[in-house]
Amino acid sequence: MSLPTKKKIFEVLESVRDPEIPALTVREMGMLRDIEIDEDGKIIIHFTPSYSGCPATDLIKVDIMAALQEAGYKNIEIRDVLSPPWTTDVFTPETRAKLKASGITPPVETTSDKRLLLSPGKTVPCPYCDSNKTELLSSFGTTACKSLYRCLECLQPFDYFKCH
Ligand SMILES: [Zn+2]
């Protein structure tokens, strides 16, 4: 087995998805901060949990370990990186497009908007028809990190990924 490289490990971890947002990999979620290979060849995963207390976090770590072990790597450590904290601001345009394609509206505000209370009457567009005529059905959707909305145009219910 050749020595692990950062690139190779990132490739292996592309198979690990967020169980609550199956459309996204843990890298796309912004949970993989960095990967380090030390002098002994130990793989150190710098991992940032998304929503703190999210029940999926432990499961994701198990999946990361399993994916690496399956690829033949044994010497692995997952290190929690809690600072700076994870926010939805790390979502790239590709990540946002993938969320939308899976029927989830990505956050319309950033954490700094939220701190400054700049978006009191925010509009959450429908991911299916882009209509702005939507209504909030429940602050808690299929998981705690999402809210449930309904489109008044195409009548589809959809999840909104809350800004965090
Ligand atoms: Zn719609």
Class of secondary structure makeup: alpha/beta
CATH level-1 class of the largest domain: Alpha Beta
CATH topology of the largest domain, which one? GMP Synthetase, Chain A, domain 3
Distance between the termini: 41 Å
Give the cofactors and ligands: zinc ion
Report the order of strands and helices: HEEEEHEHEHEEE
Sheet with the most strands, sense and barrel status: 4 strands, mixed
Q: Roughly what is the average pLDDT, rounded to an integer?
A: 89
Number of domains: 2
Seen as an oligomer or otherwise, the chain set is: single chain
Q: Measured on Cα atoms, how large is the radius of gyration?
A: 18 Å
Q: Which descriptor suits the 3D outline?
A: elongated
Strand content: 25-35%
Number of helices: 4
Stretches with pLDDT under 50, minimum 5 residues = none
CATH architecture of the largest domain: 2-Layer Sandwich
